[in-house]
Amino acid sequence: MDIDGVEESSRQVQVRFVTKLNPPYKAPSSSLAIPTNITRLRLSNIVNNILEAGVDDWQYQPFDFLIDGRFLRTSLEDFLLSKGISAERVIEIEYIKVVAPRREDISLHDDWVSAVDGSNEGYILTGCYDGLGRIWKDAGTCTHVLEGHTGPITSVCVIKPKVESAFDQLLATASKDRSLRLWKFDAGESAQPKKIRAFKILKGHNAAVQSIAAQPSGDMVCSGSWDSAINLWQANGSDAGGDIVSVKKRKKGPRDAEPQSEREAVSSLVGHTQCVSSVIWPQHETIYSASWDHSIRRWDVETGKDSLNMFCGKAINCLDIGGESSTLIAAGGSDPTIRIWDPRKPGKYDPIFQLSQHNSWISSCKWHNKSWFHLVSASYDGKVMIWDLRTTFALHVIDSHKNKVLCADWWKDDSWSDQGMNILHGSPRQI
User: Fold this and answer.
1) CATH number reported for the structural domain that contains residue 299 in this entry
2) Contact 260/248 with Cβ under 8 angstroms?
3) What is the spatial distance between Cα 414 and Cα 315, in angstroms, rounded to a whole number?
4) CA 110 → CA 145, 353, 430, distances in Å?
5) In which domain, by residue range, is 162 found?
6) Model confidence pLDDT, tens digit, residues 260-275
7) Which ranges does the UniProt record give for the WD repeats (predicted)?
């Protein structure tokens, strides 16, 4: 069958549109003839015309298209030729909704925004070079200020974010002042902004702390430092596994009701020879780390030994674990390329993907929690990019910053399917 609105072409191909979307987004399964020089925009118009014929109040929906699991980013003819796909058969073209980042208001800070955590859909946690952590109910609305660090905050972490109660939410921050701090706050409080101080100070590193991550259970946190060590700390209320060094007392005030205690590390993981720039704790007994010594390591928490030591050839700034079966390693560092490895593959550890559209060092990369394909990255080139592993080109480029972007994260994962993506990204004085 031919379809109205498609001009005649000397070369045509039979296609069938398929989708995993639910009605009213399902097109009839019959095939139709289209010209091979057609591009994505015109394909989207065709699908909308088909769907509009069966829905009275249809509203235009942009679509993306995949053939054999790969995104169509050229003309149909060029794609078929590059993949060696015969135009003599009926080509199945899968269509999905175009998902674009949603524009949010700016949240202003007093200095460079160095860290962000969007893992709790009820609030955003940020760290800043002014030494303060901040909790945001939504873009532009700061509800709590975390006071106490004497140097710039380098990393922030929500501990066990999916708790049912809003009371006693646990947070961790790390700083160039060589310490970590643990915080409790009530997410239901409406005071704007309320100043709070840490209930626990974790000291033991000999240099600036660069990265922190929480155990999935929320019992412990780990930290990577410029002293080349990874320290493990108790995060819950238990006093087991570390010594209470001292109790700090300050001038009495309403926010000083709970005493502060200083704690030492439970244990250390030693092996890196330069700054440990990133730590991830994806499973109870497994920690991943990246370093400026060009290596990525996987550690067994119980034994303290590394079971993977992968040399990458570049100083690494950021690391995350996700993708297919939550096993792929994504990392970026001292060049414009994001590299992705699959540690399940035997033999040499060559990247299975290399994403190279940034123009400067990669500062942050983060997998989407509910998609095997999607990754967000930030760079010193001032850009944030959203990637899909089914194409080598960035799906979206956010170019709203005028300087380096130091951090990025997803927020409100449930919005992925229907309403677009909430992307958090931090740069000088704003997120």
Assistant:
1) 2.130.10.10
2) yes
3) 34
4) 12, 38, 8
5) 108-430
6) 778 889 999 999 999 9
7) 146-193, 202-234, 269-309, 324-342, 355-397
